[in-house]
Structures are given as structure tokens and as C-alpha cells.
Design goal:
- The protein has 484 residues and is of the alpha+beta class.
- The chain folds into three domains: 121 residues, Rossmann fold, CATH 3.40.50; 152 residues, Aminopeptidase, CATH 3.40.630.30; 168 residues, Roll (Archaeosine Trna-guanine Transglycosylase, Chain: A, domain 4), CATH 2.30.130.
- The N and C termini lie far apart (52 Å).
- 41% of the residues are buried.
């Protein structure tokens, strides 16, 4: 059994979460060719209660190609159990199964074992959450003896020559690193600011030459935290090329899923001598005539990328939740106060992410996908002393009185504990779950007096408020340089 699976099972058991297996998995184990592994897997399966079989509906079968293979039939039985609600979540390393679950609308309910383990640690108070932050550094400062470089040493025939070149070219490269509490590199990104474009002859592109999260740090959204730093740099780098690319080994399914989720597309392979080395490209500047709507526009070209003409909402958020949701904030209020290094020893893993969830009790029932979200950080209940400090783009919203529905939708990206969700639903209250992507911080912040002066709000916001005044909408879009 993989160590991360053991960790997930241990944490689930410690906190009373029920773990089930599916008979389709047993059928799969029975076909294992190695007799020793087959018996070990069957013995492990027998330790857990099994779900009952349910009929596989046609809409589940429709996400599989025809004709279905025996493995497809087994997977369809598992997805049918998830689809009917026999379990709240499916935990699997199978990338095809996760993609098919997403096509059924269950993306929020499917997790990898490391994600499930990390989220359970965050979800239950008392588990020590990670305290990451991104450091920008010169490439000549890189410590090549760090364990994170071990896999690169195995990949590059001349690793020492490559790292020496990276260090020598410090003026034309940028690097970002997440360092753990023990000082080790937990995640690392290196970009070459100009390289030959992989597709357009005669053009330059930014090359994301290294992008790696250490195996021991998986499941904590460090990849998103790192990508956010890289794209934030690109958004503010004057005169940089309009495209960014990265070369990915065809076997790296997880990295390919990650890149797709943030607007990279596969455009070919490195060359005929490297058919397994895929090239993935992200366009940073919308081309003339681009007509993508709000959310697709943001995914394709951002962050930072906002489309004009989308609904705009002001989302008030109290300081506690703001600091959990945006631990990498550059400022914390209208005064321009900056976070004190180490002041919050327990930031939560999903605060690292680009993809986040915010829960609130609001009269608003629905926020359309693609809406621009202005997060207004209140100042501890003091009227008129808050400010818009962060910007998001809505992916999905759902309002429910059922805590289980709230948990199922937000679990993969929430900073809220089980007790927090229960408190929000106290006395049967309905909770609005907003899934969104973090676009940028507003620096300097927009204080409430400025918002009122430009007709964005009429008073300090106390609940989710849609901006309706045309003057206010125009001002916000102008400040954000929204794509017309």
C-alpha cells in the first residue's frame, strides 16, 4: 500500500470517517497477474466494508467510449455509486476515472489520496497545517544539493552542466521557491525569460524550465501557490513575450491535468527525437478579437485576466476568514498594512491555492460563473473602515441548508473546518458556497469612501452586493484593465 494511502486511511479512522470499497475493485484485483500482489490486494480489500451494487444509469455509461472495455465496465459501476450518492467522496489515483467523474459533474467530490489526506488534516482542528510562503531568489543562489533536484539529476544526463548554466544565466532567468519549516525546498519554479517559441517561428516565449513540487509536500496546493507567483510576475513584467511554455514528459498525467486546469494547452512534442516530451503552451495576452466569456477568458489568459461585461459582486469578508483564505496577501486593509512575517503560524493549505471556496450566510441565492468578485475586508466591525483588497472570478455557486451538500461542494478547496461549517448552518441557516479563482490582490486597496465616490456601493457592504450602477461598473472595469 502506498504511504499516502496509509496516511489517508489512518486520518480517516482517527476522526470516524467511514471508508468503503467497491466490488468492482475486487474484480479488478482478481485479475492481477502477480499471485503475491493479488492475494495482498484481496486481503487489504477484505478489511473494509463493501458498497452494494447499484444499476448503472445511461448517463454514466455515456461518459465511456464505445465499445466499453472490461475495465470501463468496472469503472462505470464505481461512478454509479458516486452518482447516486452512496458515498460523499471518491478517492482514487486513476486519472481517467477522475476525468469521467468530472464530466458527470462530480469534480468536487473526487480526490487523490494525498489531497484527501491533506484536506482531512486541515479540516480537523488540532492537525498542524503548513506555513508556506514563496521566496523569489536569484538562480545563482540555488542549492543543487537539495533533495528536490534528485529526480532532475536522474533525468538530465548532464545535470551539473545544466544547473551551472542556470546559475550563470541569472540575469535572464527568474526563480521562486517554497521552503519548508526544516529549510528544505518543497517546491521550485524556474523560468527563462526569453527562449525560442515552440510553435511560432521567429518569435520568443517565456520558458517555464522547471516546475516541481517535492513528493513529501504533495497535497498542499503548493503547485498553485507557485504558479500564482510565476503568473503574477508575468502579469507585471514589462515587455515580456506574450506566451509561456513548458515541456512535460508524457507519463506525467498529474502535471498535465494541472496545466490544463490553468489554461495551458498541448501544442506538440519537443522534436522527433523526443516524442514523449510534450510541449504545453499558455497565452498570456488575449489576441485581438478574443470573445471568450468571463470564466473561460480568465482560465485561458489569467490570472490576472478579467473580462468586461460580467456581473460584479462585492463580497464582505471578516478579517479571520480573509487571512485564512488569502494568507499570501500583500496588504491587509485600507491603511496599507503589510503582514508581519510569521505572525500567523497556522495558515491553511487551501489558502495557497488559486482555486478557492468562500462560505457565507447571505440573502443572495446565486452568483453566475464568470462574475467578478471584489472581496471587501471589513475592519473588525468598524463602519467605513474596510476596503476591497482581493479579486476573484466566480466558477460556481450553490445555496443549501444541508451541511453535507456544503461540504461535498467545498471540501477540496475549503479553509473551513467541520465545526466552522456546522456553525454556519446553525439553526438550519442556508449557506451560500462560492467557488472561485483568485485573480489578484488590489494594491493599494480600494477603501469604502473611494467605492462610494465612484458609485460602486452606496454604503459599507454588510452582505453580498451586486454592483448595478453603470458608473460604478465602468470604474471597476477601468481599474482592472478588463478585456472589452
Amino acid at each position: 500500500m502506498q504511504p499516502v494511502v496509509s496516511t489517508f486511511l489512518r486520518i480517516a479512522g482517527e476522526h470516524g470517517h467511514k471508508v468503503y470499497v467497491h466490488p468492482a475493485t475486487l474484480d479488478d484485483f482478481k485479475e492481477t497477474s502477480d499471485s503475491v500482489h493479488r492475494e495482498q490486494n484481496i486481503a487489504a480489500y477484505a478489511k473494509y466494508p463493501a458498497l452494494h451494487e447499484v444499476a448503472v444509469p445511461q448517463h454514466v455509461l455515456d461518459v465511456f467510449p464505445a465499445p466499453r472495455s472490461p475495465n470501463d465496465d468496472r469503472d462505470s459501476r464505481i461512478l454509479a455509486a458516486l452518482d447516486i450518492g452512496a458515498v460523499h467522496f471518491l478517492v482514487t489515483n486513476d486519472s481517467k476515472l477522475r476525468k469521467r467523474a468530472a464530466r458527470l459533474g462530480h469534480e468536487s467530490r473526487v480526490l487523490r489520496p494525498d489531497d484527501a489526506a491533506a484536506q482531512l488534516e486541515t479540516w480537523h482542528p488540532g492537525a498542524p497545517p503548513p506555513p508556506p510562503s514563496v521566496e523569489a531568489l536569484n538562480t545563482y543562489e540555488l542549492d543543487a544539493s537539495e533533495p528536490i533536484f534528485n529526480s532532475l539529476r536522474a533525468t538530465y544526463a548532464d545535470f551539473d552542466g545544466w544547473i551551472a548554466k542556470v546559475k550563470a544565466e541569472s540575469a535572464s532567468r527568474r526563480a521562486w521557491m517554497v521552503r519548508g519549516a526544516d529549510g528544505r525546498y518543497e517546491a521550485l519554479a524556474i523560468v527563462k525569460m526569453r527562449d525560442s517559441h515552440p510553435v511560432a517561428v521567429g518569435k520568443d516565449a517565456i520558458k517555464l524550465s522547471t516546475f516541481k513540487v517535492a513528493d513529501f509536500a504533495a497535497g498542499r496546493r503548493l503547485g498553485e501557490l507557485l504558479l500564482k507567483a510565476v503568473l503574477r510576475w508575468a502579469a507585471n513584467e514589462y515587455g515580456r513575450p506574450s506566451d509561456m511554455f513548458v515541456e512535460v514528459d508524457a507519463s506525467q498525467d498529474r502535471l498535465q491535468e494541472f496545466l490544463t486546469d490553468f489554461g495551458f494547452i498541448q501544442v506538440g512534442v519537443k522534436d522527433q527525437n523526443h516524442p514523449d516530451e510534450q510541449v504545453w503552451l499558455k497565452t498570456l495576452d488575449p489576441p485581438a478579437g478574443s470573445d471568450l466569456e468571463g470564466l473561460p477568458h480568465h482560465i485561458a489568459y489569467g490570472p490576472e485576466a478579467i473580462r468586461a461585461g460580467q456581473p460584479i459582486f462585492v463580497i464582505p469578508i471578516i478579517p479571520k476568514w480573509y487571512e485564512d483564505l488569502f494568507p499570501d496577501a500583500e496588504v491587509f486593509g485600507p491603511s496599507g498594512a503589510v503582514p508581519i512575517s510569521g505572525a500567523d503560524p497556522e495558515p491553511k493549505a487551501h489558502g495557497n491555492a488559486i482555486k478557492k471556496a468562500y462560505l457565507c450566510r447571505s440573502p443572495t441565492n446565486h452568483i453566475p460563473p464568470g462574475s467578478t468578485l471584489l472581496f471587501y475586508r471589513s475592519q473588525g466591525g468598524l463602519k467605513g473602515d474596510g476596503a476591497v483588497v482581493a479579486l476573484g472570478v466566480a466558477e460556481r455557486s450553490h445555496k443549501s441548508q444541508d451541511p453535507i451538500e456544503t461540504i461535498e461542494l467545498s471540501f477540496k478547496r475549503t479553509v473551513y473546518s467541520e465545526e466552522d461549517v456546522a456553525d454556519l448552518h446553525n439553526d438550519g441557516s442556508a449557506v451560500l458556497t462560492i467557488l472561485f479563482r483568485h485573480d489578484r490582490f488590489i494594491v493599494p486597496p480600494w477603501p469604502v469612501d473611494e467605492l462610494r465616490a465612484h458609485s460602486v456601493v452606496t454604503t459599507w457592504p454588510q452582505s453580498v452586493t451586486r454592483v448595478k450602477n453603470p458608473e460604478g461598473i465602468a470604474w471597476v472595469e477601468q481599474q482592472l484593465n478588463a478585456w472589452p
